[in-house]
Amino acid sequence: MRERNLGRTGWPVSVIGYGAWQIGGTQWGAVDERRAKDALRAALESGVTFFDTALAYGDGRSERLVGEVIREERARDRVIIATKVPPLNRKWPARPEHALRDVYPREWIRECAERSLRHLDAGPIDLLQLHTWTDAWADEDEWYDEMRALVDEGKVRAIGVSLSENDPASGLAVTRSGRVDAIQVIYNVFDQTPAAELFPAAQEKNVGVIVRVPLDEGALGGTFTLQTTFPPSDFRARYFRGERLREVVERVERMRPLLEAPGQSFAQGALRFAFSHPAVSTVIVGSTNPAHVRENARAGEFAPLDAATLEALREHAWARSFYH
Questions:
Q1: What CA–CA distance (Å, rounded) separates 62 from 27?
Q2: How many domains would you assign to the chain?
Q3: pLDDT digits (tens, 9 = 90+) for 295-308
């Protein structure tokens, strides 16, 4: 597994990380605890050293499972754990008109951090992130002062923010401010917009970049067909509604010669794209299937894609909103 530093923290992290949203057992449908733990163990066994979870994932269930497996496997000294503070108003995404005091007041940040510490039960939180963000808050002090206080107290080691879906510009100001150690953003073959301005800003300030949704909620896994369906409890039933599934299948087939090759699955090619930009520290991908976890992790053994392939993939960017 290749490694890169998480920005100015200097922490080496695996280029393929594990995203623990699915094991929360809510928006992706029910997930058996044993299966969730097997998936986490598969990640550890495959050399994954970066685990991203959140208090909102199953109301702490994901955090508890991550913490349990890391303790059981005695892996704490070789992994980085990131989690997130949910918005108090429970609104995703954040909008500029949302007052900071209604979303991330000082006392809420601390309360959530304390809950996450208990759920994980694994010492200090390596990276604490705000789960939503708008640059309307970039110059406000309350969120920053409280997160820095948690660092000063030894409860948190670094801080960051998770940017809104399909809106990397929403984090340009905070990235350039130098206030955060890391940012989390959607980046994949379909959504290549962070490469224009956000990634150069992160490189300039040595801010770690955590890429999420590298497979576009499974669309870039290369396995969907026109007959693919999702249970009503799985949010993808909404995400791929209408004509989106058909468009995905057609677009993937056009890209297959670029991302699939002997010894490399389409999904591995898509993951290679996500870490090919030098600004990217780690790419988090989630699965509850241990075999898929291992396959995803193997993408981290490959080199970044070559310049010619990256240039060809620029033509496959697909501008659309998260749900439409």
A1: 12
A2: 1
A3: 999 999 999 999 99
Q: What is the pLDDT of residue 192?
A: 97
pLDDT digits (tens, 9 = 90+) for 64-114: 999 999 999 999 999 999 999 999 999 999 999 999 999 999 999 999 999
**pLDDT exceeds 90 at position 29:** no
What range does the domain containing 148 cover?
Answer: 3-316
From its phi and psi, is residue 145 left (phi > 0), alpha (psi between -120 and 50) or beta?
A: alpha
Task: Give the CATH number of the domain where residue 265 resides.
Answer: 3.20.20.100
- Whether 322 maps to a domain, the answer reads no
CA–CA gap between residue 276 and residue 8 (Å, rounded): 19
Burial of 203 (0-12, 13-18, 19+ CB in 10 A): middle
pLDDT band at residue 5 under the 50/70/90 scheme: very high
Residue 260: helix, strand or coil by DSSP?
A: coil
Which phi-psi region, left, alpha or beta, contains residue 305 (left: φ > 0; alpha: ψ -120 to 50)? Answer: beta
- Which of 34, 21, 3, 73 shows the shortest CA–CA distance to 218? 21
307 lies in some domain: yes
Q: Which two tokens stand for residue 236?
A: 């993808």
Asked if residue 119 belongs to a domain, the reply is: yes
How many whole angstroms from its chain centre is CA 104?
Answer: 20
pLDDT at 323: 52
pTM (global) more than 0.85 = yes
